[in-house]
Amino acid sequence: MAHSTLPDDLAQAQYDWGRTYTALAAAHPRGTTALRRRLLHLSNRLFWHPFWSTPAGHPTAARAALSQPVRAHKRGRDAP
What is the superkingdom listed in this entry's lineage (predicted)? Predict the structure, then answer.
């Protein structure tokens, strides 16, 4: 299956969204208001990203493909 080329800022926003969600889901998170605002901001950026209005951004295939580069990005960043 050919993968669409996802913009780096879209993959980064998805990665940041996951980290923010994880921080908010912690047992006793600090700064919950700021985390919630950041999560809403990132959700907005992800949902309304211009990529989704391009032919390569077909909603079903591209949104599913978004998780793959995000996982690869996370592995690269979190490596010791």
Answer: Bacteria
